[in-house]
Write a structure and sequence with these properties.
This is ArsC family reductase. By secondary structure, the chain is of the alpha+beta class. 52% of the residues lie in helices and 13% in strands. α1 links the parallel β1 and β2.
Length: 119
C-alpha cells in the first residue's frame, strides 16, 4: 500500500492524486494539517531523503519567514523543528511504500516507475 503525505489544497498534491486515481493505484492520503505529523515520522523521512531535500525553500511559507529564522536553519535539528511547527515547509507530495522507499515531488514518469517497482 502506498501512502501520500502532503496538504490537500496543494496544487501539486492535486495533480499527483489525480494521476494515481486515473491509473487505479490504491493509496492512503495523509494530510499534515488534518492528520498531524509525528517527530519520529519526520525523522524517518529525513533519514531517507535528507533534510535539505525535504525543506521547501521555494514556497510561500519559507519566503514569509524573517531572515534570521531562515539563516538559523542550517542543520537537521533546526530544519526538523521548523517543519514540525509548519508542515507546509515540507516539499510535497511525498509518496511512501510499505517497504520504506520514498519518492519526493511529482513527475508522471517517476511515479510510473515507482509504482511498477512495488509490484
Amino acid at each position: 500500500m502506498l501512502t501520500m503525505y502532503g496538504i490537500k489544497n496543494c496544487d501539486t498534491i492535486k495533480k499527483a492524486r489525480k494521476y494515481l486515481d486515473a491509473n487505479g493505484v490504491a493509496y492512503q492520503f495523509h494530510d499534515y494539517r488534518a492528520d498531524g505529523l509525528e517527530a519520529d515520522l519526520l525523522q524517518r523521512f529525513s533519514d531517507t531523503l535528507g533534510w535539505e531535500a525535504l525543506l521547501n525553500t521555494r514556497g510561500t511559507t519559507w519566503r514569509k519567514l524573517d531572515e534570521a529564522t531562515r539563516s538559523a536553519v542550517d542543520n537537521a535539528a533546526a530544519a526538523q523543528q521548523l517543519m514540525l511547527a509548519q508542515p507546509a515547509m515540507i516539499k510535497r507530495p511525498l509518496l511512501c511504500r510499505a517497504d520504506g522507499s520514498m519518492l519526493l515531488g511529482f513527475n508522471e514518469t517517476a511515479y510510473a516507475s515507482f509504482i511498477v517497482e512495488k509490484s
